[in-house]
Structures are given as structure tokens and as C-alpha cells.
Amino acid sequence: MKERLATVRLPSVLTDLISRIPLSDKLPGKPGEKVLLELDLGRGLAEAAPSNPIEAIRALRTPLLRTLVEHLRKAARDDSVVGLIGIIPGDRTTMAQSDELRAAVHEFGTSGKPTLAFSPTFGELLGGTVGYHLASAFDEIWLQPASGLGLVGFSAQATFLRGTLDKLGVQPEFGQRHEYKSAADLFTRSTLSEPHREMLSRLVESATEQFVADVATDRGLDADVVRQALADAPLTPEDAVERGLIDHVGYRDEAYTAMRERVVVTEPTLRYVERHGVSRFDAVLQQLPKPSTKPRIALIEAIGPIDVGHAGPGPGGPRIGSDSLGAALRAAAKDDHVTGVVLRIDSPGGSAVASDSIRRDVQQVRAAGKPVVASMASVAASGGYYIAMPCERIVAAPGTITGSIGVLAGKFVIRDALGKIGINRELIAGAPRATMFSAQTPFDEEEWAILDAWLDRIYADFTAKAAADRGMPLEDLQAVAKGRVWTGADALERGLVDRLGGLDAAIAETCALLGVDRRDVHVAPFPKPHPLAAFQPPESSESVQAAVAPWPAEGPRIWQTLMAGLQEVAGWHTPGVLSLPPVHLPGLLPGGRPSGG
After folding, report:
1. Model confidence, pTM
2. Residue-range domains of the chain with CATH
């Protein structure tokens, strides 16, 4: 019996947690210690911490983007920090994430401290464009021998299933507003329409323009040299050195040795950026509430597709629930300690009703006298743009995917497909429109008229509200709407956003609106993260607890999530009328494509 007990192992979650608790109570940053920081993107990068407490513990090794940016900003003023090494193994970020990290690296560099980027490979024959974009912000770039610089540039890919659906006997019936709202083209067409091609071409062109300008500036090169490198890629390390794209070819140990020589410190302490200044135990508890006497700016996160109801897990990650996000906004409006709100958005859109509910809650925060600034992450399109547009200011990264002011709706008719495998369904309707969205029958002429009128109404409502929120003449707004997707840089030129930048820029905008110095406010996630918050039942829909996604999910909820995932794989799921078109954009969208619809 004793032998059996001796072989019992702790659950991996507990083992993971215990392994991070320090064996002593000594804090990093001892007197006289000199620290060389490491920005290691090989460990991944997260936009937000999981709301599920168990998953949050398991995700402790994956740094948050906002934590990295914040710690780099502080490290620039920390005399114990002597330098920064970036480990960049190819493309691990989107362009929007690269934009934010580049700004933080630049700020760190202005302190006079050296920075060095090392990569085992920038993609070799594959894409390393975004990884190199980030590396170019460092003073010095090292690339491992026998690897490569895969500056193959940006591309877009659209998939069409119409031929497959025809063979299966599935009839897609969709309406959209307007020509650039191409999500339904996946099912209704076999090739790119001209508006769709024009939109994708401009997205790729805009990203390329940004890349060329950033690299040319940081590397001190002529823009034509960078464009030629894109044309000649992939490049060998030696060729990259000759072109001035990298500085040295060498291994990791050689790069670290060179950096130690630059900082003139015999044995600097190596420490990850997000770990500097906190103990191991603090690292576990750093998301817990911290008392502060400073005025507070609430950081409210809106991550994932948008749906009516409460937030929860989706097939591809978290989902925004209008009830949950609305509860957070309402609580912030009533909280006397909250002076302003930064709404951080990373969403491809979803439900029009849910988006409209959230828009109203943003307006109510502003009506309470508290400024709201939108911070767009990698994507804030369609419904994601809808919830940003009522904010007092909108800040987007140059590489953010946004816009898509349009609407679509429809269904699949699978009667013939079922008939091929011997399945027959018969419908009995209790009202004339009871079977309008049945998958057994196509829309008749009157039903198409109803759908078209409904799409026209939603589109007119969307564009009118966008024009009002942005202070634009309706005709000017409509000219840049039509369902068209823009990069953040192009959106700025067209008045859809106010400023280019990341979360730090959005916080600065909020401080400017409040008339306070950045150092005089406390910025913190809202509601305050707590490991037991997901288990605490809310008192009402107005309480701050209502903003927290429940966990664990009930059995039926898990089953529903599984089925929703299977429907999305099959292409039989329309996540909402305000959704970003499904398009493959490596380096611009997470995973190369939107997470919903």
C-alpha cells in the first residue's frame, strides 16, 4: 500500500503551479544586480489571460502582450536593466502585435540601453516577414547560420466551396450589403468577385507599404532596397548581411556573448521581460486585485466573436457576450474609483443585436462623464468596429484589420443533399413564415423580399450610427463602408479611426481626455481578476460579477460548443450578420484567418 501511495502523482495543473512558487522569499532585483532582459516570443503571445482559473494557471508561461509592453516601458527607466535581447523564431505575431512590441522596443532603446534580436530562422523558405518586421526595431540583428531570411511578403487567399456544395446538393442562399461584404462568397461563388479582389489586394498592398517604410527607417536603408529584398526572397544569411538587412550571422551563444560585451557587465542576470521586478509567487498572483489610491482607468477586454447573452468558451476561443461585456461597462460607469475606460477589442464581429447592445452601454459610460477610448488589437471588424465606433477616440495599429461595415444573412438548403442519402423531411407550418429559414425549402419571392428589406434596414442603421458616432456626413461614411475591410493605416486616412498606436497609445489618449499625467493614474483590468470570480454568482445583471464568464461549463453547454465547432468546420454556421469575411491573411490575422465566421 505504501508503495502505491509513493507512486501517486499530483495533477499536472498543481505541479505547474507549485513549480512556480519560490523556495525563498527573496525578490528579484537585489541591490547592485544588473539585469539583461529577454523577450522570448518562442513561448507564444496572448492577448488576454483565460477567464477559466485552471487554464489561467496553465497559461502562466505564455506572456500577455500588454504585460510585455508595460514591463518594457518600465524597464527603460530602471537603472538595474542594462539591455534587451529578443528571441524571435519566425512569424509568431500578427502585424498589429508587432506594431505594439516595436513601439515598446523603440521606447526602451531611447534610454540608451542596447537591444539585440536573435533568430534561429526568419522562416527559411517559408514566411518570416512579420518576425523580421519586429526584429528590425532592435539595434542589432543576428541570424543563425544555415537558416534563412524568408521575406516572402504578404498574401491573401480566399477559398470557395460552391463547386463542392453543388456536388453535394447543398444550395446556399445569402444576401449581403454591399459588394465588399464577401463572407457569403465562400459558399455562393467559385471565384473572386472584382470588389473582393480589389479589397484583398489593397490589404496586402497596405501591409507591404507599412513593412517597407518601417524596415527602411529602422535599418537606415532606401525603400527600394527593402522592396528588392522582398522580390528576391528567400535570402541566405550571408546575402542578408550584404544587403544590410541583418548585422551578424551566428549562433545563440555567440549573440549572447556579444550582448554581454556590449553591456560591459561580467555576469548580468538573465530574466524574461514579464518576470522582472516580481517574485515567482507574485508572478502567480500578479493578476489579483492590488490596492491603489490613484484614479483608475478600467481596462475592459472584448475578445472573440460577439453574441447575445453571457460570455463563454467558443470552438476557437473565448466569445464576447453582450450581457457580460455590458455588465462590465455598466459597473465601470457606476464605480466612483473609475475615471475612464479603455475598451480593448480583438473581434471579427458577430451578432448585430449584441453589438448594438454593447454600443448603447458604451454610450452610457460616456453619459456618466467618463471617457471611453477604443484600442483595436489584431482585428476589430464589422461588429468589432460597431462596438468601437461610439468611443470618444479610436486607436488602431497600422496593421489592425478593421472596417467591414456591412451585413449579411441567409441559409443553406440541404433537401437535395439529404435526398441523396435517403433522408426525407416534411414541414408543417403554423404560420406563413414559420419555415422561412428552414433548410428544406429555398426562399420564395416574397421571402427574398423580406430578407432584402431586413438587410437594407440593418445596413442603414449601421451606417447611420457609424456616421453619427464618427461625426461624418452619411455619404462620406457610406463611401468607405459597403462591407469593405481596411488596415488600420488606411482606416486612419478615411476617418474610421483617430490615431495609430497600441494599448499604450490608447491609455495616453484616455489620460489626455482626463487631463491627467500617465504616472498619476492606475490602469488595471476591470472587473478585477480573481481566481474564484467564475464561481461567484452575481447578485443581478447590474453587478460587476455579471461581467465574469461562468466556469466550469455545464454538460449541455460543452455539447453545444462541440456541435457549434462541427458546424463551423462544415461551413454550416453563420456567426452573425456583422461578421468579418473568412479570408486567409497570414501575418495580419491570428492564425491567418478570423476566429469567427
Report:
1. 0.84
2. 30-153+233-282 (3.90.226.10), 292-408+469-592 (3.90.226.10)
